[in-house]
Amino acid sequence: MAFEGLSSRLQNVFGKLRGKGKVTEEDLNDAMREVRLALLEADVNFKVVKEFIAKVKEKALGQELQKSFTPGMIIIDIVNKELTELMGGTQSKLAKAAKSPTVIMMAGLQGAGKTTTSGKLALMLKKSNHKPLLVAGDIYRPAAIKQLEVVGSGVGVPVFTLGDQTSPVEIARQGVQHAKDNGLDYVIIDTAGRLHIDEALMDELKQIHEVTKPDEVLFVVDAMTGQEAVNVAQSFHDQLALTGVVLTKLDGDTRGGAALSIKAVTGCPIKFAATGEKIEPLEPFHPERMASRILGMGDMLSLIEKAQAGIDADKAAEMERKMRTAEFTFEDFLDQMEQVRKMGPLDQIMDMLPGMNKMKGMKDMKVDDKQVGRVEAIVKSMTTEEKRKPEVLNHSRRKRIAAGSGTSVAEVNRLIKQFDDMRKMMKQFSSMMGPGSKGPKGA
Ligand code: GDP
């Protein structure tokens, strides 16, 4: 799978950080050293790596890591956001000309996947109700025209060709005219590639560019070639003003260098990602999804965001003190419940925790939100005095609370009993602890 090495190395680094209650500057430096090596090994441009690490460090130190309960998570979150930025931040869409047809010129080295990608792009456009035309502009590679014709007929998209005796510039010009005459709204011009960049090729591409004035110049590049892909992209960009990049062969075991460096070095956004030799619709490239895929995080990120928004560190510390000194009241109980609830439905929170569904028995555990809501209603129906001094709760008060909360006296009794048990347990626990100590004596 693509990015496997990078992904597992980064997950390793963050696995160590995740469980930490405190992250020192030294921990951060250690982690960043490992991230740096992982990125370099994935063939990411060294300048890009240097800037990336500096940014992450600066942001991490700017956060009050000491105050947080999840300092490791904050760092992972920062890395995720910076990886996303590195790949362009948000999804970059295909251009659409104000006046039809939209002309897309494909460029890239031989074997990068231009012809295949042209077919995938045509299929993607066709599926979204457009009428594309493929133009066979590679007259040099034997069988290139035939290949495009096969691809075109496979996806049901017309292919414009004038054989291999007319100049590609003229083919491109007539191709665009053909689309205009036939009411086709996208023209995809497949061009010739060489094994290396040479002047004759660049001249020809520049002429095609001049004649067809493309709305989009897509640079097709094999993601497996790593940093070399970035160098070639830069040369093409200097001559042709590329508007976007298509990364191909992401199904292979590419290390990630191209995906992570190309935007940062050339300024050109990655617009599409291609996988497989079969002609399937081309997939738009989503930087944020790619970043969380590299970090192997999935929904963890939404959970981190929720936790950060929902949990107040000062409040939680106060709560911990109260539990230790057994000053815990119904007011605190409610407060704590609200903090957890701010994070969203409990079932969903459980689902977002990685590995939770893999743990034995966890799968069947149901968290009953309705039940939590009823408990909340009961506590809210108490007066301030009752919340602070639950011992005043006699039968008539309990009856009033049940009526006020739409529950039954039995339910109110059960909750008070549970609360009492909890307080007793806290008292026992705190009597076992010495002043200031955080664990049971002698344990
Ligand atoms: P061109 O010379 O740039 O037009 O490249 P082609 O479209 O002919 O592709 C070169 C080779 O790469 C062909 O064997 C394609 O089947 C293969 N190829 C193209 N795109 C992909 C891809 O996304 N994944 C894989 N695995 N192979 C691809």
From TrEMBL:
One of its GO terms (molecular function) is GTP binding. Pfam families: SRP54, SRP54_N, SRP_SPB. Residues 101-296 form the SRP54-type proteins GTP-binding domain. GTP binds at residues 108-115, 190-194, 248-251. It is found in: Cytoplasm. Residues 100-252 form the AAA+ ATPase domain. SMART domains: AAA, SRP54, SRP54_N. The keyword Acetylation does not apply. Keywords: Cytoplasm, GTP-binding, Hydrolase, Nucleotide-binding, Ribonucleoprotein, RNA-binding, Signal recognition particle. It catalyses: GTP + H2O = GDP + phosphate + H(+). Its EC number is 3.6.5.4. Residues 431-440 have a biased composition (Low complexity). Composed of three domains: the N-terminal N domain, which is responsible for interactions with the ribosome, the central G domain, which binds GTP, and the C-terminal M domain, which binds the RNA and the signal sequence of the RNC. Belongs to the GTP-binding SRP family. SRP54 subfamily. Involved in targeting and insertion of nascent membrane proteins into the cytoplasmic membrane. Binds to the hydrophobic signal sequence of the ribosome-nascent chain (RNC) as it emerges from the ribosomes. The SRP-RNC complex is then targeted to the cytoplasmic membrane where it interacts with the SRP receptor FtsY. This is Signal recognition particle protein. It comes from Paenibacillus herberti. The gene is ffh.
